[in-house]
Amino acid sequence: MKKLALKIDVDTWRGTREGVPRLMDMLKRHQAGATFLFSLGPDHTGRAIKRVFRPGFLSKVSRTSVVEHYGIRTLLYGTVLPGPDIGKREASLLRGVRDAGFEVGIHCWDHIKWQDYVAGKDAAWTRAEMKKAADRFREIFGENARTHGAAGWQINDAALAYQKELDMLYASDGRGTHAFQPVDAAGQPLGVPQLPTTLPTLDELIGLDGLTSDNVHLHLLKLTEATPETGHVYTLHAELEGMRLMDTFDRLLAGWTRQGYQLVSCVDLFHSLDAAALPKGRVVMGEIPGRSGTLALQA
């Protein structure tokens, strides 16, 4: 059966407490599985203001209402207001996601810090940030995380290698076309298998080429008429599809069901693959349409 994995990035405290419960309800109505990846430390969303100087950032913001999606209060965390500790405040809710039958994993410790800095940091910095998230995950769930999905699709080789040390099963850290085994510059296996996001996100599409929240689902459904041998991975956000874009996501779920997809968690998709036979490839940094800056891509 055709599989489409739903990967849910939870970036903020508001997205955790408001978007996650709404998404769980919707997924249950559609009998869909999903993987929830949590930000487990402080919400410092307000510190993203410095991205205003990045090429392409203002054009993206002008297409998607940041205030509507995130709220004024969230946009002040880490600057005017102290950043709430998401994992400490919402541990019970996070356990409830797992107890409802959904896969849970690590998105990051501090979303803004990871997204803005990891690509240029060394192994010591990277491991320290990942260890904080891994320790908090264990504290909340009583077990080690088996998967990781990098905040902002930002990663480096040290992070990929450390996932293996953390005994993760697979990860979904970048963008690409099919599942693969990362390798280092010498062609040696690096870390765990990757299930890259294969489809564009709503915030990359809305506002371009006449696409709106009312019709963007039709564009995505055209892209999923063809199914890769290793399935699709679609990344959504608790702050978008779990809030103001819920109706759009509802139409997407219904459309994918009509197309014959089984909507599953990332781990379900991973278990349907032969990990030992996956092609090898590098993870490199590059650009994609609709998103500012560079991000991890399947080479």
TrEMBL record:
Signal peptide: none annotated. Gene3D superfamilies: Glycoside hydrolase/deacetylase. CDD domains: CE4_ArnD (cd10939). InterPro entries: Glyco_hydro/deAcase_b/a-brl, NODB_dom. Pfam families: Polysacc_deac_1. It comes from the Bacteria. Residues 2-264 form the NodB homology domain. This is 4-deoxy-4-formamido-L-arabinose-phosphoundecaprenol deformylase. It comes from Chromobacterium amazonense.
